[in-house]
Backbone:
């Protein structure tokens, strides 16, 4: 069951890795440096806008549906209430995204680019992947995502655009994703039915997901938040260099996330009825995740220069130094994800996750303001690496405490 789900979900994550890698050489060479910086900033802001309607439901919602998997009525009610909660959050998310975009120097007040940024963020935030993860059919939405990403790649090849058409490139990305989200919601509605959700239930899910939302928003600070902040701290050319390296690292990180995304609902489902089975699922997932993080980090460190040259060209040579530093982040992301999704989310330690991520966000923004203002992009990379070390250590410590504090050990010793 896990293997059948894992393969297509991992394929979708690989598509998120490979397709942007194929798109970047085209876009980086066809857009001027300032326009490329604007596109990178807009995409970073779109992912920040996504956080409001997403609201941590990628974990909270998947967990809620997985726990009610055997009770169709309860699972359907929770699904409808979570979707309604997401829609409630769309308006403030759109307004906040538009204001943030208008004040971001790299976007230069481009109204079309700002509007598309907000639209892309809302589209990403409404993605129903959490529901399909919860019912154990994550592969369904994974196939839709793969199709949307493939369409984006095809459109970038076929549609003509000029050296300053960052908004058009963003539209080519948002359109196919919107179609995938619409199809996913249609399939979800057919499974759970349509009914007016109770406001009490909506409010309960907003309250229940609040800690994970704050944690998710804070966790974006080291990656997306720094790309956005770089637009205020550096010239567009320096922003482009930092964002180029960051995009490669986060693309590689996409190869890590599906491991725990797939096994977390399975661990949550087995935890009470089959703790030994939950232990096996966790250990195998964590081992695979850590090994993959080390392998990807080593690859990026060794081949930083040719990767940057092939993807971005000679104008972005400085991104290689940033990439070598950022490569060390990948093993730390693996540890963070294993502890977060494999232990803390399963045991409902949402407040601990929130506290760790908030502290990390405060550290990264303070470090950037003190050390990177007007400086080299490598300074931002060092700030991020330092914060990721602290976050991974804190997640590991919190996970060990959670296991010891639980009446029944979270992952008892068992034969593998």
Residues:
């Amino acid at each position: 069951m896990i293997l059948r789900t894992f393969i297509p979900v991992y394929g979708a994550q690989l598509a998120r890795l490979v397709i942007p890698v194929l798109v970047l050489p085209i876009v980086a060479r066809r857009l001027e440096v300032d326009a490329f910086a604007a596109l990178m900033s807009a995409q970073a802001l779109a992912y920040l806008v996504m956080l409001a309607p997403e609201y941590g439901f990628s974990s909270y919602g998947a967990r809620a549906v997985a726990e009610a998997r055997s009770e169709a009525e309860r699972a359907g009610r929770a699904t409808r209430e979570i979707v309604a909660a997401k829609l409630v959050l769309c308006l403030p998310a759109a307004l906040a995204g538009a204001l943030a975009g208008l004040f971001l120097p790299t976007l230069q007040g481009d109204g079309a680019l700002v509007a598309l940024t907000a639209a892309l963020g809302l589209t990403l935030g409404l993605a129903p992947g959490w529901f399909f993860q919860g019912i154990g059919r994550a592969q369904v939405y994974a196939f839709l995502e793969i199709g949307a990403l493939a369409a984006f790649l095809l459109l970038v090849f076929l549609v003509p655009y000029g050296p300053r058409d960052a908004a058009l490139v963003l539209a080519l990305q948002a359109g196919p994703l919107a179609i995938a989200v619409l199809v996913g919601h249609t399939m979800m509605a057919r499974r759970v039915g349509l009914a007016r959700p109770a406001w009490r239930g909506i409010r309960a899910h907003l309250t229940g997901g609040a800690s994970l939302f704050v944690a998710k928003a804070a966790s974006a600070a080291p990656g997306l938040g720094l790309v956005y902040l770089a637009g205020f701290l550096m010239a567009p050319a320096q922003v482009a260099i930092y964002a180029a390296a960051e995009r490669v690292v986060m693309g590689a990180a996409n190869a890590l996330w599906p491991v725990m995304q797939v096994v977390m609902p399975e661990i949550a489902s087995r935890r009470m009825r089959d703790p030994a089975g939950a232990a096996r699922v966790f250990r195998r997932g964590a081992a695979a995740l850590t090994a993959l993080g080390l392998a990807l980090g080593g690859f990026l460190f060794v081949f930083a220069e040719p990767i940057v040259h092939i993807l971005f060209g000679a104008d972005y040579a400085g991104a290689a130094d940033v990439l070598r530093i950022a490569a060390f982040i990948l093993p730390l992301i693996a540890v963070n994800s294993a502890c977060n999704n494999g232990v803390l989310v399963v045991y409902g330690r949402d407040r601990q996750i929130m506290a760790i991520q908030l502290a990390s966000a405060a550290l990264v923004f303070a470090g950037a303001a003190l050390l990177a203002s007007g400086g080299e992009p490598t300074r931002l990379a060092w700030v991020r690496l330092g914060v990721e070390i602290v976050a991974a250590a804190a997640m590991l410590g919190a996970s060990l405490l959670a296991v010891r504090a639980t009446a029944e050990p979270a992952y008892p010793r068992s034969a593998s």
Observations:
- The mean pLDDT is 83.
- The first helix runs from residue 2 to 30.
